[in-house]
Amino acid sequence: MKRAWHVALGLCVLGGVGTGAALAQPAPAAGIYACTDARGNRITADRPIADCVDRDQRVLGSTGIELRRVGPALTEHERAEMDARRRQQQAAQQRLREERSRDKALLLRYPGPAVHEAARAEALEQVDSVMAVAQRHLQELGARRKKLEAELEFYQDDPRKAPPQLRRQLQENTDFMQEQQRFLQQQVQEKQRINQRFDAQLDQLRRLWAGNAAARE
User: Which of 54, 87, 146, 176 gets the highest tally of CB atoms within 10 A of its CB?
Assistant: First the structure.
C-alpha cells in the first residue's frame, strides 16, 4: 500500500513538471518581415511592409533564419503605375522645396516695397546709362556722315567718280549707325523685360509680405 502511494506521488510530480514545462514554452512567433525598398532602405516589421509590396519580403524566425518568402502583391503594370506615382510625388516635393527656398531668398533680398522699387530703379538706370553712351556715339556718327556727304557733293554729277576711300567711309558709317540703332532698340526691349520681371516679383512679394504680416499678428 505504501509503495503504491509513492508510485502515485511520483507520477503526480512528473505530471506537474511536464505541465509547467509546457506552460513555460513561448508561443511560436509569427515571424519578422524584412526587405529593401525602392530607395535602398532596409526595413523590418512584424507584419507585411507596405513600401515593399512591389518586391519579395523575407519572413524570418526568432533566430533570424528565413522561414519563407512573400512575393510581390502587385502586377507588373501596377508596380509601374506605383513607381510613376512615387516619382511624381518626389518631383512635386522637390518643386515645393525649391519654391520655398526661392521665396525665402526673395524675402531676404526684398524685405519691403521700398527696397524692391529701389532695385528696379537701379536696374533701369544702368540700362539708361548704356543707352546714353550709344546715343552719343550715334550723334557722332551722324556728324561724321554730314562731313562725308559734304565731300560727296563735289561728285554729285557722277557719284561713281567719288574716291573709293570716301565711298568706303560712307558705307562704314551707314553700317555703324544701323548697328547702334539696333543696339538701342535692344536696350529698349531690355528695359521692358526688367519691368516685367520686377512686376512679376512684386505680385509674388505682395503675397509673401502679407503672409508674414499675418503670421506676426
Answer: 54
